[in-house]
Specification:
Shape: globular
Distance between the termini: 15 Å
Number of strands: 4
CATH architecture: Orthogonal Bundle
Strand order of the largest sheet: 1-4-2-3
Number of helices: 3
CATH superfamily: Winged helix-like DNA-binding domain superfamily/Winged helix DNA-binding domain
Helix content: 25-40%
Radius of gyration: 12 Å
Order of helices and strands: HEHHEEE
Length: about 80
């Protein structure tokens, strides 16, 4: 949520942005955090805090295939 709050209200982030933010090394080890970042995004969807999108449209976890973006939920 902190990453989103640092960006424009309409901006989105990639799960890799969150993984890179959390990873403390300077190599590609952040990739191991990608799946936990995606799972966290879905928990935030369930809490109503974010939307996961593909091609700019919200998608359900069961529909998502491939790269996703995360943006603040429209209230």
């Amino acid at each position: 949520m902190d990453l989103l709050e640092r960006r424009a209200a309409t901006a989105s982030i990639c799960p890799s942005d969150a993984a890179r933010e959390l990873y403390e090394g300077d190599d590609g080890g952040w990739r191991a955090l990608m799946e936990p970042a995606r799972r966290a995004a879905w928990r935030l969807v369930a809490a109503g805090r974010v939307e996961v999108t593909q091609a700019g449209r919200p998608v359900a976890e069961t529909e998502a295939r491939g790269p996703i973006r995360i943006r603040r939920a429209h209230r």
